[in-house]
Design a protein that fits this description.
alpha+beta
């Protein structure tokens, strides 16, 4: 049986694994009882990294976090 949590309020920093979409990560959290949930920017399914998840009242911060709309990507390429 899965434990159902009450609605939480705050910002969660999630290490999104490669292979899942940002929305799939949110759906897994919704199954734990989080009805009001969002994120501050989508990560590509092939990427892994930090996904800022907003819970409850913190979803109101999304507009402030997304202002400017710029993203920075960092990568490494090795030849040979």
């Amino acid at each position: 049986m899965n434990a159902i949590l009450p609605q939480l309020h705050g910002v969660c920093v999630l290490n999104k694994p490669q292979g899942l979409t940002s929305n799939q990560c949110l759906m897994k959290l919704k199954r734990l009882g989080q009805k009001k949930i969002g994120h501050a920017g989508t990560l590509d399914p092939l990427a892994h990294g930090v996904l800022i998840v907003l819970l409850g009242q913190a979803t109101k911060l999304a507009n402030y976090l997304l202002q400017g709309g710029g993203k920075i990507y960092k990568g490494m390429l090795v030849f040979g």
